[in-house]
What we know:
single chain, alpha/beta, Rossmann fold, 5-stranded parallel beta sheet
Amino acid sequence: MSPSVDQRRLSCLSVNHFPPPIAASEVFGRPMDPAPAPLVYINGWPGVGKEAVAECLTLLLGRDKSVLIDVRSVGLDGDNGFDQSPLLTPEHPRYFSFDLDVDSIQAGSAEESDVSPGDDAAALPSSGANLTRLLTQPSYSSRIAVLAACAPDTPAGRGTIRTLEAAASRSGRLFIPIALECAPAEHVRRAGSLQRQCSYKARRTSAPGSNPGNTLSLDLSGHGNGRFQQKLAMPMQEGLTVDVTCSPAFEAALQIVGFVKGCVAERDAELCSTSSSSATTTPTDSCKGEKDWGVSD
């Protein structure tokens, strides 16, 4: 029985007109599995407004595209004197802490040993491993992690930076450092306002007869004796410095969003160049699409 006209036509098309299959990575010019979202670290002196900028940054990026990480035990006290961030409490809708509730995080998703920062004193031994577990959670992989903590240019501060960089590297995230600067006079004004807020909170939460003011006082003479003139710890790679003396937190967050977009675009171009070295198209042509984080240019 001779084949029908339709069968002969289908056979002809399948043999002569359909090209061989092409790998998906060559079609799109990039790996099919997107790289994890970056880790944005915001450094600055107490009272400069790190938490406010971090909060605005997560709002700009989107609640479903970012995660705000609390830092409690990296060798430094929080801005409010309670050894925690004033904006991040267990009742906060986006509260996460990488040194608490470790059992709730999947075990075995990261290395247990921490990276030694050389002569510098490392942060708490478990901080790097716990942060890595949080960053490698599948539900957080596509969400930009935002972390604000003061890391001065001291052994403890440099150890904190090295620990955060190691956690970002282990989780496959791009580490994007941000430093906030503020003029001395404005910084003293903000620190004084912060001290009054902390004292009010302490009076409400302290036990009768206690004197929490002794443990919550901030040294506002730091600008005179050079405490706040000390430099912040430097990361391994160059980041962005934002002067927040006259800029509100929202404007500072907008600058950070633009910088993060540029860093991610460079990272994507490098990934495309690696995965598409044999493709005929130019890597930059296939990587022009930007990830939409809810903020238009």
